[in-house]
From TrEMBL:
Gene3D superfamilies: Winged helix-like DNA-binding domain superfamily/Winged helix DNA-binding domain. The keyword Thylakoid does not apply. Residues 4-59 form the HTH deoR-type domain. InterPro entries: CBASS_pafABC_assoc_protein (IPR051534), DeoR_HTH (IPR001034), HTH_11 (IPR013196), PafC-like (IPR028349), Tscrpt_reg_HTH_DeoR_CS (IPR018356), WCX_dom (IPR057727), WH-like_DNA-bd_sf (IPR036388), WH_DNA-bd_sf (IPR036390). This is Predicted DNA-binding transcriptional regulator YafY, contains an HTH and WYL domains. GO terms for molecular function: DNA binding; DNA-binding transcription factor activity. Keywords: DNA-binding, Transcription, Transcription regulation. It holds the Pfam family HTH_11. SUPFAM superfamilies: Winged helix' DNA-binding domain (SSF46785). The keyword Glycosyltransferase does not apply. It comes from Geodermatophilus siccatus.
């Protein structure tokens, strides 16, 4: 690569891909000498990019945090992936990211070349998002960023954690990977105090703090981080197959709950729904959102739960609220 401008952009792209580059490795990737690499780094600094250098035998370069976010260099696939990711983030379970994701998406699409903008617009035009309408366990975006950086940099992490039984604890962990499964985020890491691998729900994690201590990655006792989390959650809850009939067309039912269920046509104006859930609360909630008559096929426990919810809702509807003086009418509701 002989053109200095093109080489400078390539250098910036490489520095953004990895936290730290050894000088000889970086020069080799660019196909230049170490001396030419130093000149290219100086050119980046003149453009306002804060590139730090470490001298010595193991010397190298890294792109340091600056006072302002510098322009990013993305190839075509990365730009489309970024736009798609921002669209998905608008319906994410990370607190406060919906509005900021929409703003960032608008900026990215605005400066995209026409050929890429068409790809993103085509994807958005044929995709119908079905955001989760029930209660969410929101993840702190700052905590998510801290954990992600610790995973990337192989840096030990300390944080407060609340177990499923509400028991608080402090954990010291070698973070391995972040996993999104269902509507939840998990951290997979090696728990130093317990001497074993663990998965941690990020909505139960608070005040993560990097310790500054680096570690050599351990071998995960699973095919990958996703398989490890799946195995752990399966041990806690056995998935339950659910089936019910809905007096509504399949297209209408898919629009409501198709993201979490398999919906089949079952005759004119009728559909059959199959779900696999960790518990029965979510299928019961989904049934309540359909606005149509439903017949439960399986399991019978779902019928019992719906009866229980029906009685509870009935009692709630029969309670007469007190008037402005705190008194309740003795007969019926006030007109």
């Amino acid at each position: 690569m002989t053109d200095p401008s093109a080489r400078t952009l390539r250098l910036l792209s490489l520095l953004q891909q990895r936290r730290y580059w050894a000088g000889p490795d970086l020069a080799d990737r660019l196909g230049v000498s170490v001396r030419t690499l130093r000149r290219d780094v100086d050119r980046l600094r003149e453009l306002g990019y804060p590139v730090e250098a470490q001298r010595g035998v193991d010397g190298g370069y890294q792109l340091a945090p600056g006072a302002a976010l510098p322009p990013l260099v993305l190839d075509d696939e990365e730009a489309v992936a970024l736009a798609v990711g921002l669209q998905t983030a608008a319906q994410s379970a990370v607190a406060g990211t919906a509005e900021s994701s929409v703003r960032a998406l608008a900026k990215v699409v605005q400066v995209m070349p026409t050929r890429l903008r068409r790809r993103v617009e085509a994807l958005r035009a044929v995709t119908d998002p079905a955001p989760w309408a029930g209660p969410q366990q929101l993840v702190d975006p700052e905590a998510l960023a801290v954990v992600a950086q610790a995973c990337r940099d192989c840096e030990r992490l300390g944080f407060a954690y609340t177990a499923a039984d509400a028991t608080p604890s402090h954990r010291r962990v070698e973070p391995h990977r972040l996993v999104t499964l269902g509507r939840r985020w998990y951290l997979v890491g090696y728990d130093l105090d317990r001497g074993d691998w663990r998965s941690f729900r990020l909505d139960r994690l608070a005040r993560p703090r990097p310790t500054g201590a680096r570690f050599a990655p351990r071998r995960l006792p699973a095919e990958d981080a996703v398989a490890f989390v799946r195995a752990g959650t399966a041990a806690l809850t056995s998935p339950t197959p659910v089936e019910f009939l809905v007096d509504a067309p399949a297209d209408r039912v898919r629009a409501r709950i198709g993201r979490w269920a398999r919906v089949e046509d079952d005759g004119p104006g009728r559909s059959r729904v199959h779900m696999v859930a960790d518990g029965l609360d979510w299928p019961a909630f989904a049934i309540g959102t359909l606005g149509a008559e439903v017949t439960v096929v399986a399991p019978p426990e779902l019928v019992d739960l719906l009866h229980e919810w029906g009685r509870r809702f009935g009692r709630a509807a029969s309670v007469v609220p007190p008037d402005e003086h705190g008194d309740r009418p003795t007969e019926g509701r006030s007109p």
